[in-house]
Structure formats: structure tokens, C-alpha cells
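Notebook entry, structure prediction.
Reason for the run: the old model in the group folder had no record of what sequence produced it. Starting over properly, with the input documented here first.
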Amino acid sequence: MSPRILFSIIISIILIGCSNPPHPTPENAITGETSILKPVTTDSLNAQIRLLFDEFTRSNTDQDNRLKMIDDRTKYLDSAYFELVSQFNRLQDDVKTLKQNIIANTEIKSNLSSGLSTARLSEEEFRSRYIDALASYQNGNYDTSLRSFSDLLLIDKTNELSDNCQYWIGEIYYAQKEFRKALAAFKKTLEFPSTNKADHAQYKIGLCYLNIGDTRSAIDALNKHITDYPNSEHYKSSVDYINKYK
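New structure, fully documented this time:
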């Protein structure tokens, strides 16, 4: 029974008791029993009121407990919802990056199949095209530069400038604020044996992690940079970033 109904019943009983006091019957008037019956009726009414009031109190307490339980569950569900939204957004970013990589790789393969020779270039030809690609990057022609460096890597990954091509692909993505793509490119740079871009690539890996909000990985990468390359021109910058974000 709801607290509102119980409360209404209690009020009704009180009003009835107050408006209709018991009248003595003729027999009571004769025998003088009126004064005895009235206290008995009042006691009975009071007992009923106490019982109803106790039930009302219990019901009200139960309802308060249920409301508190509902409130606690609502807070938990809100927290779980926001966590799911955050995870969903991260997944969307990953899917977007994957799609972009697939599109880029498809375009590169399409260019190759449309007439780009995969025959190994001479050292002089490779260097000449590398210089042209680097000039495009320095002039802000990122799309042209990206295609040129990517084409050179497809033609020859063993050339002494191939690791540089991979590194500058990372710099192009970094300049375009596509930090996840840049991170992947800089990591690939470190896969080249004896690369002369390892110092710079390791430093830029730390910065990429900072830009995507992964502070822990950024500090780990920058710690590795100052450990492996103590004479690097970026040494002080790595130390400053570590002190700032640790």
C-alpha cells in the first residue's frame, strides 16, 4: 500500500472519530456505562492509528531506500555510459585512420600500375628524385612530396636514402597534424638498419604520443631518446617535456 493511501486512511479515521463520538444507548444511560464505553472506543481508534502510522512509516522508509537505490544505479549507469562513449570515439578515430591508410596505399598501387616503373633506379636517379621530393616538402607541397617519397620506397627500400624517405613521410603527416599516421611512419623509420634518422625519429615519436594524449607512452619514448642519444640536439627538449608531463 502506498504512503499516500495510508496517510489518507489515517486522516479519515481521525476525522470520523472526531465527528461521530459514540452516543450512549438507553441501556447505558440507565446503567451508567457511558463513561466506560467511550474510553474503550478511543483506545481502539488510537491502536488502529498507531498500526497504520507504523505501516506508513515502514512504507515511507522502503520507498526512500528504493529511491536511493535507483539514484545509485543511475549514477553508475551514467558513468558507464560516458566510458562507452569515450571508447566508441577512440574506435572511430582508429577506424578513420585505418581507412585513410587503405586509401593512401590503394592510390600508390594505382599510380604504380598506371605506368610507374618499379625497376631499381641508379643512385644518381634515386638521389635526384629524393631531392625533388624534399624540395616539395620544404615548399609546403605536402601531397606531391608524400607521393614522391612513397614512390621511392616502393621502388627501392634498400637505398641509403630510403630511411630518409620514410622519415620525411612522418614529418609530412606531422605537419598536417595527422599524428597517428606520423607515429606509424616514424616507427617504421627505426626499422631501417643503421638509419641516420633514428635520433630524430625517436624524438618525434615522443611528440606524436603527446599530441594524441598518451602521456605515459610519450614519457617512455622521450626517456629512451635521452638514454640512447645523449648528444642529440633534441636532448634538452626531451628532458623539458619529461619534467613537464611526468
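Summary: The CA atoms of residues 98 and 137 lie 24 Å apart.
The old model has been moved to the deprecated folder.
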